[in-house]
Amino acid sequence: MSKVKVIVAGPRGRMGNEAVKLVHRTEGFELAAVIDRKHNGESLSAIEGFQGIEAPVFSDINECFSSIKADVLIDLTTPEVGMFHTETALNHGIRPVVGTTGFTKEDLAKLDSLTKEKGIGCIIAPNFAIGAILMMKFSQMAAKYFPDVEIIEMHHDQKLDAPSGTASKTADMIAAVRETKQQGHPNEKETIQGARGANVDGMHIHSVRLPGLVAHQQVLFGSDGELLTVRHDSFNRASFMSGVKLAVDTVMKLDVLVYGLENIIE
Ligand code: NAP
Question: Is the CB–ligand 1 distance for residue 213 below 6 Å?
Answer without folding.
Answer: no
